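To: structure desk
From: M.T.
Subject: fold request, one chain
Message: Could you run this one when you get a chance? Sequence is below, nothing fancy, just the single chain.
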Amino acid sequence: MTALSGEDSPVYLRLRGTIAAGILRGDYRAGDQLPSVRALAAEHGANPLTVAKAYQSFQDDGYVEVRRGVGMFVRPGAADRLRVAERERFVTAHWPRIRDYIELLGLDAAALLERDEA
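Reply: Done. Structure tokens follow.
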């Protein structure tokens, strides 16, 4: 699991989160080829159609391009655009749930951040 996906998410979204994290970390840079559908499916024990669905979402969003007969490649600027999109998704989808859980447990967010820095 990555910070970009949750265990309760559909498999294709978890796979998408794994690849997104790789792009954001710099494991896959502009021009780099992503693992083949079959290779990624084997690595994660997933159905190749599920991996293809995750990859299709990257293609639809313009983060990768397909070169027929060669593979899928990260497009220039993909990491920056993906980071902006993931930040927005975190702030709108994840943060409200996290904030609510912090409040429910009676935790102090500032103390949590200090604890993490220690």
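Reply (cont.): The chain has a mean pLDDT of 91. Let me know if you need anything else for the meeting.
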